[in-house]
Amino acid sequence: MAGGRRALRHVIFQDALVAAHLNPAMKTFADRLRKAGKPHKFITMAGAWNRVNLSHTLCESRQKWTPSTV
């Protein structure tokens, strides 16, 4: 992926990688994709988009993140 804000993109991908290991909901999501035979880069991208969409939804609804939000 090229273009966009490089630093922000890097932070989002790092967040997705960490969340796939530490966040139970994201771990389940990543494991489901892994079982379906998706490549690592696809799983990382899907996790990043998932995190971006969650952040956007929280900002629009003016809510704070809680584990039950996921």
Structural description of this entry:
This is Transposase DDE domain-containing protein. It comes from Pseudooceanicola spongiae. The chain is mostly helical and 70 residues long. It has one domain (6-62). Helix content is 73%, strand content 0%. It contains three helices and no strands. It has helices at 6-22, 24-35, 40-61. Helix 1 (6-22) crosses helix 2. The longest helix is centred in the last third of the chain and has 22 residues, at 40-61. The radius of gyration is 13 Å and the shape is globular. The N and C termini lie far apart (26 Å). 11% of the residues are buried.
Q: How are the SSEs ordered, and which strands pair?
A:
Blueprint: H1 6-22, H2 24-35, H3 40-61
Helix pairs in contact: 1-2, 1-3, 2-3
Mean pLDDT over the full residue set:
84
Radius of gyration: 13 Å
Which sequence of SSEs, written as H and E, runs from N to C?
HHH
Uncertain residue segments: none
What is the 3D form? globular
Number of strands: 0
Helix count from the secondary structure assignment = 3
End-to-end distance: 26 Å
Strand content: under 5%
Helicity level: over 70%
Largest beta-sheet characterization: none
Query: Could you say how many structural domains there are in total?
Result: 1
Instruction: Provide the structure class.
Output: mainly alpha
